Amino acid sequence: MQIETVVGAIQDQRADAIVVNLFEGVKNPGGATGAVDAALQGKIRRLIAQGDFRGKAGEVAVVYPDGQIPARRVILVGLGQASEFSQGKVRHSSAEAAKKARDLGAANIYTIVHGAGIGGLHVEQASQAVVEGTILGLYRFRELKTEKPERPDPGRLVLVDSDASKIGAAGVGARRGQVMAESTCFARDLGNLPANVLTPVKLAEIATNMAGITGLKTTVLEEGEIAQRGMNAYLSVARGSHRPPRFIIIEHSGAGSGDAPIVLVGKAVTFDSGGISLKAREGMEAMKGDMAGGAAVMGALRAAALLGLPLRVVGLIPAVENMPGGGASRPGDVVKSLMGLTVEIVSTDAEGRLCLADALTSAGDYKPQAIVDIATLTGACQVALGDQAAGVMGDPSLVESLRKAGERSGERVWPLPLFEEYDEQIKSQVADLKNTGGRGAGAITAGCFLKRFVRPGLAWAHVDMAGMSRQENGTAITPKGATGYGVMLLSALLGDWAAK
Which of 266, 274, 270, 262 lies closest to 248 in space, CA to CA? Predict the structure, then answer.
């Protein structure tokens, strides 16, 4: 989508559709909406008076100017209660307005910057949220469809502000919003691809191509090199599949970034059958999305490169397929990890933590400032938090940084404890530890397991996004299917780090 910013009055724009807003409960619109209403001789006020529009968050109405202004249509979108207003409301309302514009066949949309006036948001924040909401709301996965959509997406979004002093900041926010949203859509595309298309080898090819376009550096380790490094816990997951694993390393070195890197680790199981501990048939098709953590890391690295963040960032993505083949691990097998710890495999369906274990140990080789891993790791986390937040645990200061980044980006996380008493659940009688601690506190004991593979003294946090990777029903900004969760969370964290 082409994104622009212009100085001017929204009612003077010649467009297929212009977008204005209203807070819930407002009877007489002011600001830009009031100016449009005056130009339309009170059509918006009459709509409100008749009870046909109340300004609820995401509510949409269409007003036809009949030649009174140059625009063909006015889309009025609700922002909800002013007391509950936030960047998230801007994303939500912008998404609904964009979808309505598409339904109407609008090729271009001109919009005011929701929240930059009476809403109290800084114009840069508001512009970013408008663009994010628009792009995310319009997302559709059509790569494998042969039939063209009935209505194409609008190709142009123009942000309009009457204050020339704000337009520079609006442009900066719009650019950031476009990069964030398009990087999220990149991750969504990966999560929606079927496992026969997105194999570990294919994921590595996509990472390499993306890196070439954005100026990132990639290194891809094949099975022999992974074995030579001693990453046997990770390799144990790959043994049941005839599709070989790939360990993907992506590096961003921003201008002037001489400090130790931040390392992001993303689980990328391109299909998880459960291995010999086979999953139930119902819903197994969704296990193509067990690579969502790896997709989030790839999207965050893409955003870091395009935004030119002055940081060193390393992404480590252990890509693998978990299948019940003749070489697959058996429950009761013991493997030796890169850290040197031995692990009893109690369940082959607790495979993600085996991949992450060796990747987290490898992360220590970079002597990083911090390590963050992200994974669709446990059903227990989804049971605990549903699809409203991911679980996060680890170093308290890093957990708090992620919590703040989640609130701002709209990709929330919620802290879980790592009390040492939970370690008892992952003790093994035949090895140093076992790969699952049973049903009780399943998300936490998984975190306890991962903590054992982080080199001493390093700041580390673990994000369990099991409930966040897919939407079964869809929301305003997330259609049914892969969400791309984690890209905006990690990007917001990196942005905060760059601003220090």
Answer: 266
Q: Which run of H or E residues covers position 205?
A: helix 200-214
Clarify whether 99 is annotated catalytic: no
- Which amino acid is located at 451 in the chain? K
Q: What is the residue type of 471?
A: Q
Residue of 166, 246, 288, 353 marked catalytic: 353
Query: What is the pLDDT, as a whole number, of residue 296?
Result: 98
Nearest residue to 411 (alpha-carbon basis) of 348, 477, 361, 347: 477
User: For residues 445 and 346, what is the distance between their CA atoms, to the nearest angstrom?
Assistant: 14
Is 279 designated active site? yes
Give dist(CA 373, CA 362) in Å, integer: 12
**Rounded to an integer, what distance in angstroms lies between the CA atom of residue 330 and that of residue 324?**
9
pLDDT of residue 46: 97
Condensed to tens digits (0 to 9), the pLDDT of residues 168-184 reads 999 999 999 999 999 99
Exactly one of 279, 404, 451, 452 is catalytic; name it.
279
Instruction: Measure the CA–CA gap between 298 and 184, rounded to whole angstroms.
Output: 10
For residues 144 and 138, the answer to whether their CB atoms sit within 8 Å is: no
Rg of the chain over Cα atoms, rounded to whole angstroms, equals 24
232-245 confidence digits (pLDDT tens): 999 999 999 999 99
Task: Give how far Cα 411 sits from Cα of 13, 404, 474, 492, Å.
Answer: 34, 10, 15, 10
